[in-house]
Amino acid sequence: MTFGALTALLVLVAVLAVPLAPHDPYAQDLAQALRPPGPDHWAGTDRLGRDLFSRVLVGAQTSLFWTLLLVAVVSCAGTAVGVACAWRPGRLDSLAMRVSDVFLAFPGLVFALAVAAVLGGGMHNAVLALALISWPKYARIARGLALTQRSALYVRAARMAGCTEAQVIARHVLPNIAGPVLVTAVLDIGTMMMELAALSFLGLGAQPPAAEWGSMMSDNRNLMQTNPWAVVAPGMAIFVAVLTFNLLGDALRDAIDPSQRTASSADDDARPGPSRGAGGLAGETGKAGAPMGGSTTGKESGMALMGKTARRWGALVAAVCLVGALGLAGCGQTGSQAGQSAGGASDPQDKKVVYGTTSYGVAMDDAGLNPHSAYSGWSCVRYGVGETLFRFSDDMRPEPWLATGYEFLDDTRCRITLRTDVKFSSGRALDAQAVKECLEALVANHDRAPGELNIQSIEAEGNQLTITTSKPTPALVNYLCDPYAAIIDMQAGVSADQNVSGTGPYVATEVSDTQITLKANAAYRDGAPKVGTVVVRSITDFDTLANALQSGEVNAASGIQFANYPLFRNDGYRIEQRQSNRVFFAQLNHASPIMADPAVRAAVARGIDRQGFVDALLQGNGAVADGPFSQNLPFGGKAVTAPAYDPDEAMRLLEEAGWVDEDGDGVREKDGQRLTLRWLTYPGRAELPLLAESAQATLRKIGFDVQVNSTASHIELRKKPDAWDVYASTLVTAPTGDPAYFFRAFALDKASKNFGGYHSDALEAQAAQLQAAFDPAERAALGTRMAQTLLDDNGYVFAAHSSLGMVCQAGVTGLVPHPCDYYELSADLDISK
After folding, report:
1. pLDDT value at 12 more than 50
2. Residue 308 belongs to what H/E stretch?
């Protein structure tokens, strides 16, 4: 059979995939990232520089093996259940069929998604999830067939000949029902392959860096418009494999049931074939009047089969062309089309801007607008609802906002003078008493504020506020720029949906974990905003965000990943970028037995290719991080020295510490313990999963087994010391323009975000000196020394500082990123046709 030969060839290629692959499918070469198909890389490369043709070949092993295993398990198990129910009708039969009814009532893939989500990622769990929902079909088929055979004459004859029930089933019944079950199983291979690929695509199947077709499409899905070969290669592999097995199933069905070979009508596939009698097939005739079944000539049968196959191929080609045309039509929407949704009314109240962002929601710990809760103050200030007493200038120096100035009366007292023309959106006038109420509530409820502000008491009189601290706090004004210090009307309170009354240009009318609706504050002191309505929409999937901007569903976006920037480098859009203080970094869990080893920490620090991460994965939109602070700060950049990427030195350190590969599997061991790193991160920032996969590959070369867990549940998991070894995240390290913020939040003993339990006596002593230093130059020098202490201890790994970018339609103005990543929506925001 032609299709049998194609299937055999496909299986043979999968078996011989490793020797056939022209390159190592897991070898990264960031210098060759996203190369188009050519002589060196027949299918191109992915964003990590891995050869796609090699990964597709090796992915055939993963995809075919697990698919065939799944089909074999469910077909055998289902058949066994069905035959048992048919042979022993009664309670067992009724129970099994009712259970199967329950499973069949659920949409198969949806049920599998739920089960896989509970069990966790991995091909084992994906197969188990699909097996649980797939066996009832085979049970029902086998039961129906077995019931027809149970009273057959040959079964009675076998019993009379002395065969046991087991022998009757094994020797006589199963061979007679195997044909339909086998055809169903072969036809199911394509379906199961697509469902396994779907689970992997959603992150519930194969895990990075495994080469599996579904996960490969997921990893590269955002490149469909800019680098389509990265998605086409695994997609075509799935297409060819599914097509091959479907055609094999059809051919096998035709071979088993000759009545299927005729082409008596255009819809003979859908029409049941004639019934079989003891002497062959019924004498039904076809169009030409020739008898069907055994009396059909070989020539007629062959021609019919050829015609039937041709129709299948024709329908398939037509379907592919239709899908391709629809895809091109969907991808071909231009910037001018996208602009249609914005509206360009002259009346500001009629103008509306929809702003998409990946940085809002529960996973980012900033849902709602209550600045006294976690990082929700960022949302309050970012989206123009709240304002702080002071704000940062473009060079990160504090300047008055709700205040007009300040004066340190001594080391522990600071007098702040407020503006007199400010009102809350509730209508209450801003005065010192209102600020006092807000700051007292902040200290009582926030996790970081008490330890940073050190507020002992607050005196309010008119428009003057006097803050007394429990100890010298030189950076008090810097901390009052933090979004948690946004001033809200505490008499108006915080609503159940976490809405507040602020002093900004916008008033929130609806607040949820995924969307905020803002209306212009007509009474805003600096004039009413230029747009009447702004909708902030959380879109956590980066491809969806880019597509939403292209289609006009959103007019501006924050969080478009750098790989999609080429889509918007045209006259229909504008890209605004600024160098930021945001760093991609990893906390090391010092409570972990492995990470407690200084040699392991030193090896990790030297085993991550930071320059490659910036050049290939950030596509040059950033700079290598030598420490926590970027080069635009006086205590950052090259002021410190970080370990360089040096795999050879990393391997030497591990060897000296006793970590050796004893069994030759590429992973080092010591005292029976494997060198396994559990890398925890989250998908809220597109670059974090890429950093994890890049580190996974480079650390593998020096003997680490890195297991990546990129999950939106990272906030809870990072609090569990036994759940991770490395926690990679990103944040603005100097949002106050002062070095103290990062250490107080992430590195000191009392730091609320020191999830890895890092401790250093030297750092604690330096922090005490920093606490008492008022001179900016002295504080900068201490900040540099403290950063170097972290690097010398290999307590943290700092990968890169990224640039901040916003992408908007050409008609959107007044939207510019700020180095501290605080200020996004302002009264200057406007939109026109």
Report:
1. yes
2. helix 298-331
